[in-house]
Amino acid sequence: MKDHEIYSGLITTVPFVLRLDGRSFHHFSRDQGFEKPYDYNFSKAMVETTASLLSDSGLSPSFAYTFSDEISLYITTPVFDCRVEKLVSVAAGFASSAFTLHAGAAHPLSFDCRVVPLAEFQLPKYLAWRQAEAWRNHMNGYAHKLLTDTGLSATVAQRKLDGMKASDLHELAFSFGVNLSETPAWQRRGTAVYRTLTERDGYNPITKETVQVMRRVVAIDENLPLFKTPEGTAWFAEKLAASLSDVQS
């Protein structure tokens, strides 16, 4: 009966991205009474879930990026024999349970997952694409909230926004006294989660002295550059190189 398993033999090449998306999270956000257009507690739960995926899922991502209810995991070494069916089920299952716990949800929540094979040189372009989506969500989210605050229904407000250019959304928000370029960076550009080395106090049992040792930790960065710029490309290259070095050390 083994040959009846659909896609059990489908594998991917490395490196690749696992992209996770929350399912029906707008219902959860509404029921929890999260603030619109952004709630820091929701974002914190997403970041904690991302950090858990790095440290405890067995997927061993080298780098992760999250915004809204989306998580991208960049994986550079073979895991689970690169079996697509195994990768997406483990990632989605782990993220679902981790977020349910971190968010303190009363009912189970779920993520879907897809595999995106990428060459290493393509990752900056991928990240720039997802960050651009974060920015679009940011502009639309603020504009929608400002319109509904005037008494418009959510449906009518969205109809007014449909087809509006970025400059129009900026102008609309500014007319309400909101400068979208001055909102918190994590709202505009997302959050990165990656491994890095840090110096910590340790203990040498032979000399019975306190010594400085290097420990690998998960770092969270909420003040990201624009990935599409040379600065952003250089920033990412530095973090990825350090993460890969950590893994190999």
UniProtKB/TrEMBL annotation:
Biological processes annotated in GO: tRNA modification
Q: Which InterPro entries match?
A: Thg1_C_dom, tRNAHis_GuaTrfase_cat, tRNAHis_GuaTrfase_Thg1, tRNAHis_GuaTrfase_Thg1_sf
The record's EC number reads 2.7.7.79
Could you state a single Gene Ontology molecular function term?
Answer: tRNA guanylyltransferase activity
The record's Pfam families line, in alphabetical order, gives:
Thg1, Thg1C
Cofactor requirements of the protein: Mg(2+)
Q: EC top class, in one word?
A: transferase
Describe the location of the Thg1 C-terminal domain by residue ranges. 123-203
Q: Which family does it belong to?
A: Belongs to the tRNA(His) guanylyltransferase family.
Q: Which PANTHER family does the record match to this protein?
A: TRNA(HIS) GUANYLYLTRANSFERASE-RELATED, TRNAHIS GUANYLYLTRANSFERASE CATALYTIC DOMAIN-CONTAINING PROTEIN
Q: Which residues form the tRNAHis guanylyltransferase catalytic domain?
A: 1-118
Q: What is this protein called?
A: tRNA(His) guanylyltransferase
Q: Which controlled-vocabulary keywords does the entry list?
A: GTP-binding, Magnesium, Metal-binding, Nucleotide-binding, Nucleotidyltransferase, Transferase, tRNA processing
Q: Does the keyword Iron apply?
A: no
Which spans are transmembrane here?
Answer: none
Domain of life, per UniProt, equals: Archaea
Its lineage opens with: Archaea, Methanobacteriati, Methanobacteriota, Stenosarchaea group, Methanomicrobia
